[in-house]
Amino acid sequence: REGGEMERLRGLSLSPYLSISVVDTHFHPPLFSQTEFRPEYSHTEIMWLEVGLCVIALLAYIYYEVTKQFNFFKDRGIPFDKPSFPFGSKGSKQMFMGKVPFVNVVSETLKGGLEKEKIVGFFSLGQPIFIINDQELAKHILVKDFEYFMDRRAFLTNEKYNNNFMTNLTGNEWKKVRALMTRVFTSGKLKMMSKHIIKVGQNLEEHISQIAEAGQEVDMKDVGGKMTLDSIATSMFGIETDSFKDPENMFRIMALTLVRAPGYGSQTFMLKLFFILIFPKAAKFLDIQLVEPKVLNFFIDIIKKTYHHRLETGESRNDLIDVIAEEMKVFKNKEDSDEQCFESQFEKDAKLDTSNIDVSEFDSETVLISNALLFFFAGFDTSSMAFALCCHRLAMHPCLQEKVSEEIDELIGNGPITYDKINNLVYMDKFMSESFRNPTMLDGTERLCTKDYKIPGTDYIIPKGRYVNVHFGNIFNSKDNFANPDEFDPENFDPENHPNKFGSHTFGHGPRSCIGMRYAMMKLKIALISILRHHKLMTCSKTPDTLVMDIKNPTAFKDPVIVKLERRG
C-alpha cells in the first residue's frame, strides 16, 4: 500500500503546475465574487439615466451658447446693462417675465443710469445688441451711412412668399423690390386708389350714425379694424366687403386669424417667433411656420386668381394688384427709370441708387403676392391702432377736436370727399402727427450692420452681423426738435415753429422707412372725416386716461379704447 501511495504521489508530481492549479483553486477561492458589486438595472432605469444625461448636456450647451458673449461689450469698453442667464439684460428679462411690453424693452434697459449714454450695449437672451441713444448718431445709422445698415432682422421659414416679403429681403434683392414698390405709392397712384377707400368711409359713417343714435359706447380699435380691413380688401385685393354690417364674413375671419387678433390668433405664435429668432436653422429644419398654412393659402389663392383674371380679361380697378402689375412691366423695361420726383424730405432721404442693379429678372407673380400679403400684415394692426390712438386724443382734447371739425366743415362740408380735399386738411395733418409723436406704440427701430462700422466721434466698432437698435426716447421730447415737447400740442408741427421732422419716427427714416406712409395717412384721414363731419367723440367712464401697450399682445393696447359718439348740432 505504501508503495502504491508513493507511486500515486509520484505521478501527480509529474504535473506540478496542474496539481498546484487544482490545489490553489480548491483551497484559495477569489477574494471577490464577480456578481457581488454589480447591481442589476432594468431597461427603464437605464433609459431614464440616458435621458437625464442628455438633458444635462443640452442645458449645459444652452448655458454656454447664451453666456459665451456676455463679455462682448465689457471687452470693448462700451457701457452696457449687465446680463443674466437666460434672458439677458433687465429689459429683456422683464419682457420674458411678462412685466413690460415688447416695445418697451429698450426703454426699460436704459433705466437706472444709462439714460444719458449715447451708445449702450444690451443682451436679448445671449445676443449682444447696440443701442444708439443719440439723435445725430441715429441720422447716421438710418440715413447718412445707410449702406452699412441696409438690412433688417429677417424672419425666414420654408414658405416662399414669407421669405420674399420686402422686409425679409436683403442687399440688392431688397433694393430691387423696394425701387419697384416705391413707384406704386406715388400721389398719382394713390389718387386712383382713394375712391375705393372713400366708399368704405361711407359705410363707416353710416355705422357711426347708428351707434350715436343708440347712445352706445364703442371700442374704436374694433371700429378702426373694420375700416382698415375693408379698405385693404377693396384697394389691395379687389374684394368689396362690409364688415360693419357683416362682421363674421369669411374674409374678415381669415384676416383676423392671419394677424393674430385676440381670440383668433394661435397661442403658440410668440413661442414659434422666438424659436425662429434663436434657432433659425433648426426652425427651418422642423418646418416651423408663423402663419397657419390654411389661412395663408386662402389669401394667396385670392391674389393669384385676381391677378390671372386681370391678365386674361384686361379688367382694371386701379387697385394695388393692377398698379403693381403695371409697374412691374415698366420697371422691367426700365422705362422712366431716371424719373425722380420727391414730394418731401422724407422721400428724399429714402432715395436709393439702383443704377448697378439688374431689374430685368424677377418672378412677377411672387413679387406681387408676397408684397400684397406684406401690406396686409404691416398695415392692418398698425392702422387700426393709429386710428384708435387719434380717436382717443380727439376725445381727450375736445377743444382741439373742434378745430379739426371746423376745418372739415370749411373744406369738405357735406360735399364729396376727394383726394385733393384730403391733402388740404392742414390742421388735421398736424393733429395726427402730434398724436403719433409720443412713441406709445414704438420706441425704437432695428437695423443689421452689414459691414464693420466705426461709430462717428468714437473708437467703437460695430462688427458686421450685429444688430443695432435706434432708440427714440430722447428724440421725440427734445426742445431742440419741438417748440412745446412736454404737452400735446398740434402746433408743434406748425412750419412757423420749425419742427424737426427727424423728431418724429412714426414711419421711420431713410431708405428702410415705411413705404406705405402716404397710403396709411390717406386712409386714416378718410376715416376721421367720415366720423367728425357729423359726429363728435366724447370720453365716458370706460375711456382710459392713457394708452399703454398690452404685455401679452405686442399689437394691441392694454385696455379697449372705449368712447361715446354723439351727433354734432
Helices and strands, with pairings:
Blueprint: H1 2-12, H2 16-27, H3 43-67, H4 72-76, H5 90-96, H6 105-110, E1 119-124, E2 127-132, H7 135-144, H8 160-163, H9 171-182, H10 187-214, E3 217-219, H11 220-236, H12 250-258, H13 269-278, H14 280-285, H15 293-313, H16 320-332, H17 345-349, H18 364-396, H19 398-411, H20 419-423, H21 426-437, E4 444-448, E5 453-454, E6 461-462, E7 467-471, H22 517-532, E8 535-538, E9 562-567
Parallel strand pairs: 2-7
Antiparallel strand pairs: 1-2, 3-9, 4-7, 5-6, 8-9
Helix pairs in contact: 10-11, 10-22, 11-18, 12-15, 15-18, 18-21, 18-22, 19-21
Q: Which short descriptors sum up this protein?
A:
alpha+beta; 7% strand
From the N-terminal CA to the C-terminal CA, the straight-line distance is: 146 Å
The neighbouring-strand order within the major sheet is 1-2-7-4
Could you tell me the radius of gyration in angstroms?
33 Å
Helix content: 40-55%
Q: How many beta strands in the DSSP annotation?
A: 9
Show unreliable segments: 6-25
Shape: globular
Q: Helix count, per DSSP? A: 22
Largest sheet: 4 strands, mixed
Content-based structural category: alpha+beta
The overall average pLDDT, rounded, is 87
